[in-house]
Structure prediction request, 278 residues.
Amino acid sequence: MSFVTTKDGVQIFYKDWGPKDAQPIVFHHGWPLSADDWDNQMLFFLAQGFRVVAHDRRGHGRSSQVSEGHDMDHYAADAAAVAEHLDLQRAIHVGHSTGGGQVARYVAQYGQPQGRVAKAVLISAVPPLMVKTPANPEGTPMEVFDGFRAALAANRAQFYIDVPTGPFYGYNRAGAKPVQGTIQNWWRQGMMGSAQAHYEGIKAFSETDQTADLKAITVPTLVLQGDDDQVVPYKNAAVLQDQLLANSELKIYKGYSHGMHTENADAINADLLAFIQK
Prediction:
């Protein structure tokens, strides 16, 4: 397996597939998953001739289960360590959910200043700010995230069955057809990681204000989200991202869930390819 060691000594696992002289697409996974969440996209874009890269966030998947650094600043710095180690140029960075926050901070603070980024994509992403505050009255109440923490601490294994069985893929909707393999794969990825990293990561994805990150991004950015996202409400996420970004395209999918890159991979992949090829 391939790893890069960060400046603070963390071993970050990464995948790097395809021709090393091809344009790279870098995928950033959501909470509490791993690079494996992008299997469909990585195989699709590999077949299109791209170089595809994905890494496990610290404390997730196969990366080190360290006790420190479970915040958006370290997430972005770790992504930068992978990009610099592989010397990725003209890269397209694609992030889902928490990974979308990671992309926003990485592009704003590392990728753009270093001239490494060509485009960015935010899918069902958490910026600019999830939690409800006086300045963000449409946000999700803190009690919801406290409930996540309580459920994780009480029985993480059961919580990681309940999330994909219910709201993550919209399997709790009338007429939905749950895919057992998808549910089990979510559970498998989640249970590979550190309970502490996942617990502290809830604060990272819910309370990090990324308004400044979005305003700083000037590369072309595609913003995608479903209007039936039960995890990250799209009106407080994708719609605001599009307003804050300098050079963005917005697409809202009717009836799509938070995990639409898995549930509706064919449609999402086609739209990603069209954006990348522009």
Summary: Strands lie at 2-5, 11-17, 24-28, 51-55, 91-96, 117-123, 221-226, 248-253. The mean pLDDT is 98.
